[in-house]
Amino acid sequence: MSARQSTRSHLTRRLTQLYGGLLLYGASSALLVRSGLGLEPWNVLHQGLAEHTGLSMGAVLTVVGAAVLLLWIPLRQRPGLGTVSNVLVIGAAMDATLALVPDVHATAARIAFLAAGIVLNGAATGLYIAALFGPGPRDGLMTGLNRRTGLSVRLVRTAVEITVVVTGFALGGTVGIGTLLYAVTIGPLAQLFLRVFAVPPASGGSTVVATGQPRAAILRR
Predict the structure, then answer these.
(1) What is the 3-state secondary structure (H, E, C) of the chain?
(2) Nearest-angstrom CA–CA distance, 138 and 195
(3) Whole-prediction pTM value?
């Protein structure tokens, strides 16, 4: 294979991982919604806002993502293709999945949706982070605050997520056992899938999983 073909193949794989991961992230988040057992922190806020605005959860997710991206400006963060795509794709994928997947009421089905949602969310995180096109807007916010304040990523992430959960719960978002399970499992799952979906460099050699602060924002719990 020529160098040009190798580079093209490498880019194709990265783009496939990026958009496949973002689509899967939205779909997996929708499964957590349908389980009714608790959402990941930011989606607690998105659901609460959706109930008060009349917008779909996906639309709220997109609007909030764009608003968070604006906060990057004073933090001097630079968005990448993955950052912008995160804002545009995940919300649409969530709404599409919610339209296709009905509510479930049986306990076994709700637990199955919860488990599938968490595991697939971890896989989605590994896919799009390992593609190395830049962090999502919320992760970039945390790394930017880390650099500007000197506080650890762990502390910044914890403070931000507690804030969005409390606000979302006050607005009517769903907090439950699923929220807790997500919080304690998403770090290890994302770490696992980052290794599984690591993209080798186009020129060969050692495998790159992810680099820099964006990965830390995801994995340091």
Answers:
(1) CCHHHHHHHHHHHHHHHHHHHHHHHHHHHHHHHHHCCCCCHHHHHHHHHHHHHCCCHHHHHHHHHHHHHHCHHHHCCCCCHHHHHHHHHHHHHHHHHHHHCCCCCCHHHHHHHHHHHHHHHHHHHHHHHHCCCCCCHHHHHHHHHHHHHCCCHHHHHHHHHHHHHHHHHHCCCCCCHHHHHHHHHHHHHHHHHHHHCCECCCCCCCCECCCCHHHHHHHCC
(2) 22
(3) 0.88
- Within 10 A of 108 (CB to CB), how many other CB atoms are there? 8
Residue with tokens 């990057």: 72
pLDDT tens sequence across 155-165: 888 899 999 99
pLDDT tens digits for range 186-203: 989 998 999 999 988 776
In this structure, what are the phi and psi dihedrals at residue 82, rounded to the nearest 5 degrees?
-65, -35
Dist. CA 56–CA 158, nearest whole Å = 27
